[in-house]
């Protein structure tokens, strides 16, 4: 029993991180058909924003020194600003480009951000001491887990609910949903394209910052390559969830987190190093069974 | 007649530089990209030794100079950089720390019949087995580090039970765990469980749950990983309330990452020399000071030392061979048995161009302060079949 509870918490906390990252990608895909491969680099960028720029081996906290009540909104704003800036500088000029061209430029953008971080901070991973108290173990329903795991799960739920409310109840949300359904039609009906797209990028960047805060607290390190793995998983989650579907991205994020934890928990030792191979095999099976994704938005279905 | 004069003048001008030329060490290393953080300290240490040699009258009566080409932390660039330093007249080549990034350049040196030295590779392939007969490494094999931890923890801390946590991302990690797996049962301990993870895993919660499900917490956990994954793993292990002594390879040396795990205690690693100013050997501390005088900061980890050691050993072999010719220097290097260096004795043989046993300083981190708590030399060198596993 206790091990089942433990598994649930392990899976939900890892899934929560993936779900939030996937949501950031799905949001942008929804409004402009862009798979933003620079998303992982936004995460790394936000983590590095916590420390003073320097190539010295020992990191000095910069933003990370601020109290949580200031730090969280500032970092979310920084993430949002970085994403909006990249939209303004790069993607705004590519509105008429094909999705492939935009995807390639997002790769290029990610590469530029990563190398800029490398130039400013050096190649050595840096230590970050952010909220170490969150790593105190607590007992809950027969399972032992660091407080942070619980916070991750709760944060994900809050973020998803807040986003759902935003999409259902506000004008921006309505415009975003309309744009996700049919961008041209939405514009013809008076939806302000720039506002919608900027809004989507800002939200996506803020989500990247939230993931960055969780990663920094959980691992205690900043590494220029840290965004890559999460980006990959998050991208796969958006594909499995059905490209463009926000609930689908969240559900698939949790699903991949759970599958990863279960494989790690139950695979025999000899094949455990190949956990990710098994995980991606499951992904392929998933896509073979439902090529359109598990949770397809109605907009993706042909109308005739 | 006119032509023959011209020809002989040409011959002379062409031949003269070769006769009076300096000895050239070619560095095909990463000066940009993420590998730079690991290559630069060791290369700086190598240049410190070169300067010392020049100050002492040079090598074979000639000055040692160096040329340098950036591999940009890229395997394809590494091969190109290797060829370029050869074109610039390198008599021996120093290549990147990591086997994967250094090997393309080292192969270029090998095919030109020159010696190559990996700055700090700790995989057996970085030498005869992977590159060829003239290739060496300045560092100590990963398996020796794991075996040192296994034997020391039983002798000094009465460890009986061990748990192996292997990060499967790179070969170096497997090497540490191989050494631990070989030595820990041999020295009388029992390995009660093992698990794997990946360096960039967002969470190792599942691995931790498995350790916590054991009937009894293991005395030691052998963590075969490197920073950043190792720091993240330790942070999560301690957050979960696991108090076992955590053993590591040399790759986690340096206090720069300690903020990641506040108030860390019970964390042990083997190093070739201490960067913390408490090494019992005066030569090590005087190197640390020389390094600080050159770069403005003390070494960030022990990985500066192999650069110094390799130039030291190579220069001795060149003196004995009376030449920089690859095969002749290799023959002299292979004769070295317990050759004294500032960082302890080093040996090579015609089977192994690596250290399969070495005196290592044991660093323990207690209350977030690293310091030397002793030294250890494994009772038996790690056998070749274990290394090649």
Automatic annotation (TrEMBL), chain A:
Protein keywords: Amino-acid transport, Cell membrane, Membrane, Transmembrane, Transmembrane helix, Transport
Membrane-spanning ranges: 12-35, 42-63, 69-91, 103-123, 143-167, 195-218, 230-256, 277-296
Membrane topology: Multi-pass membrane protein
DNA damage in keyword set: no
Pfam families in UniProt: BPD_transp_2
Transcription regulation recorded as keyword: no
Domain of life: Bacteria
Main location: membrane
Localization per record: Cell membrane
Homology family: Belongs to the binding-protein-dependent transport system permease family. LivHM subfamily.
Protein's name according to its UniProt entry: Branched-chain amino acid ABC transporter permease
UniProt source species: Aliiroseovarius salicola
UniProtKB/TrEMBL annotation, chain B:
KW Iron-sulfur (keyword) present: no
Any coiled-coil regions, as ranges: none
Signal peptide residue numbers: 1-20
Electron transport among keywords: no
Gene3D superfamilies with a match to the protein in the record: 3.40.50.2300
Keywords (A to Z) from UniProt: Amino-acid transport, Signal, Transport
SUPFAM superfamilies, sorted: Periplasmic binding protein-like I (SSF53822)
Domain Rhodanese: 189-266
Entry's family note: Belongs to the leucine-binding protein family.
Identification of the protein by name: ABC transporter substrate-binding protein
